[in-house]
Specification:
2 copies of one chain form a homodimer.
Chain A (H helix, E strand, L loop, with lengths): L3 H10 L5 H10 L1 E5 L4 E3 L7 E7 L1 E7 L5 E8 L3 E2 L2 H4 L8 E4 L3 E7 H10 L4 H24 L2 H11 L9 H8 L3 H15 L1
Antiparallel strand pairs in A: 1-8, 2-7, 3-6, 3-8, 4-5, 4-7
Helix pairs in contact in A: 2-4, 7-8
Chain A binds a DNA duplex (30 and 30 nucleotides) through helix 8.
Chain lengths: 196, 196
Amino acid sequence: MIDFEKVKVIYKLGRKLNLSDVQVLLQSAIMKSFPSGEFLLKEGGIKKEVFFIRKGLVRAFKINDKGDEITTFIKWENQILASPDIILFNEPSQLYFKTIEPTDVLSMDYDVIQTIISNNPKLEANRKFILQNILKEAILRINSFILYSPEERYLKYIEANPGIVHRVPDKYIANILGITPVSLSRIRKRIATTRK
Amino acid sequence: MIDFEKVKVIYKLGRKLNLSDVQVLLQSAIMKSFPSGEFLLKEGGIKKEVFFIRKGLVRAFKINDKGDEITTFIKWENQILASPDIILFNEPSQLYFKTIEPTDVLSMDYDVIQTIISNNPKLEANRKFILQNILKEAILRINSFILYSPEERYLKYIEANPGIVHRVPDKYIANILGITPVSLSRIRKRIATTRK
DNA sequence: ACCATTCATTATCTTTTGTTAATCTCTCTT
DNA sequence: AAGAGAGATTAACAAAAGATAATGAATGGT
């Protein structure tokens, strides 16, 4: 039984896949649905799983020394989600993935994707493009920590991600900005009062 | 006249280059030497130049709204140096590169490198490796801003980069850590006094 | 409709950082 | 050797952030 949603997503991923690769990817690619508040990945996970989010919103968090959850990033529709710990560092994940909304993902095996790319040199451009875009975002984020105050970071964040703020509790946004939820609340008040 | 240093570096870069590619790369690759305090790149630069640092130390900085220089990173021996603005964002550089020590670099043209890689599929693994390592570092740096206090960031920085601290003025390290030089000085004092 | 839970806000206090300027040290230059 | 300049430290004050706890508001489940 063919899942047309799945085919559609895979088609978007690469226009140059040959038939046998599509078959391999289709076999390894699984559509999964999660209700809100469900884990996609827990600490210690080692499965090289790459998610493509079709719908919904997922937050990634670590547990710090004090035992608190610290959200390091969030991902939503049409974004790729994977644990850097597993994919880049080749270590068990210290990250958890937990849905904030009901979420549909396409789950793929990283090693299978890599094999398919090495069989299809035309896909290298895609890989380079994706990697570079992830790197771009990372560099922008580093610079925002160096160049801007927490208040400026917040303003730029909501400007760059309109709508998202309304889908995610402030305390997670605070973590992402590197400040405490209490501090973010004060910043919001400061902005609201100086605007009038 | 063949520059053996140049050949050595290029040899290290890829074990799978064919002769004509080596020739192309040799032509585009230039050894350059800079005294301390010299610019490798200034704001507005658009040349897609990639440096491999053979010896020395370079800092990258931006000018913020107040007109201050803000150092965003430093690179030294055996590291790759390039302007993300130019290479990733395809925009004129807002970054300056300025040497902190007398520095020898191998300068290469980014587009030439890309062409050579597409002619040598075996080099794709190299490119992927390099890109992934840059991404790794970026992610670690982001996490250090989110998870650690300025004091912890400083301690981790000097631990991860022993020796470098003695080659670079503290004020640049402070920028890299996202704090002011005055604050770093206080942190250093705090560490020194609580240790005894 | 109610309770419980989860967030956001507010309050209070402590700690840290930013800002500006002065002082001190060191190095390099002439 | 003297002076200039750069960088680090210190001081003094203001502003912001962290920590902890209490209060409000909203939400979801039964």
